[in-house]
Design brief:
- There is one protein chain.
- By secondary structure, the protein is an alpha/beta fold.
- The chain has twelve helices and six strands.
- The protein has a six-stranded mixed beta sheet, with helices on both faces.
Length: about 280
């Protein structure tokens, strides 16, 4: 049973969509039978909104799913109505980012490339604060930093998330927050790289051009086979989740190539330590 209500909602959405399609029903036909609008059913099937357990039961009856299979899905739907910890930060986290955090909280693996900044899961409190002040101003900054630090618990839970990070070398050389903050940040990354579930690789300038020059990304993988991997892309004002298999495969191959182009984890640790000398 999945723990994150976001992942449960996504599971229910996929199951209902597949059941409708297997039954040869259009959105219009199913929506009429379920006494809801076509747009509402579409949003449910795309995990944009939740669905109540009683409505799941009605949909399963329509799609002729009964017995233990139906009860298992209804139980997942009940779990999807629970509140995740991140929802208590809805005053400072936009809806599109809450969706990502809900996926991240359940992910078994995270693979990411960052070109300009240290990924949130590796940030110190001081570095996170400096990033927020630069990109979003001081409104709600304490709450935003608290939420970012709370997210980092996935690195230490049981079992922890497996994290593979490729960092542009420029991240090490840009003194965000000043020399002291940056020095502490680099030392923190060295310490985190000692965790068995964390791999950090530096993509050096000497590697030249590479296929991710225009696209930082996160690939989220899940332990349950029913929960397909997701690629998450983000800019200043919105996030985008790509769930199609060809997108996920494309970014997976991209990440594998970046890992081959980057310094090894041991070499990367040495490079991070070298860079930290700039901030002593």
């Amino acid at each position: 049973m999945t723990a994150s209500p976001t992942v449960r909602r996504r599971r229910i959405a996929r199951e209902l969509r597949q059941l409708r399609e297997r039954g040869g029903m259009t959105l219009d036909q199913a929506a009429r039978q379920l006494d809801m609008s076509k747009s509402n059913l579409s949003r449910i099937e795309n995990a944009q909104i939740g669905i109540k357990p009683r409505d799941v039961r009605a949909a399963l009856a329509l799609y002729q799913v009964t017995g233990e299979a139906a009860e298992a899905l209804i139980e997942i739907a009940r779990g999807a109505q629970q509140r995740g910890w991140w929802q208590s930060y809805s005053d400072v986290l936009p809806d599109w980012f809450e969706f990502y955090v809900g996926l991240e909280a359940e992910a078994a693996s995270l693979r990411t490339y960052e070109a300009e900044s240290v990924p949130g899961l590796l940030q110190t409190e001081e570095y996170a604060r400096a990033i927020y002040l630069l990109t979003a101003g001081d409104a709600g900054v304490d709450r935003k930093v608290d939420a970012r630090l709370k997210r980092q618990e996935v690195l230490h839970r049981d079992p922890p998330v497996g994290l593979s990070v490729v960092l542009n070398e420029a991240v090490l050389l840009r003194p965000v927050g000043g020399a002291t903050v940056m020095g502490h940040q680099l030392a923190h990354m060295v310490n985190l790289s000692e965790l068995p579930n964390v791999t950090i690789q530096v993509l050096p300038f000497s590697a030249g051009g590479h296929p991710a020059m225009t696209t930082p990304y996160v690939i989220l993988g899940f332990a349950e086979a029913a929960d397909a991997s997701v690629v998450y892309l983000e800019n200043l004002t919105m996030g985008l989740a790509l769930e199609e298999a060809d997108h996920v495969l494309g970014y997976t191959l991209l990440h594998e190539k970046l890992c081959r182009m980057a310094l090894t984890p041991a070499e990367s640790k040495t490079r991070i330590r070298e860079a930290s000398r700039n901030y002593l």
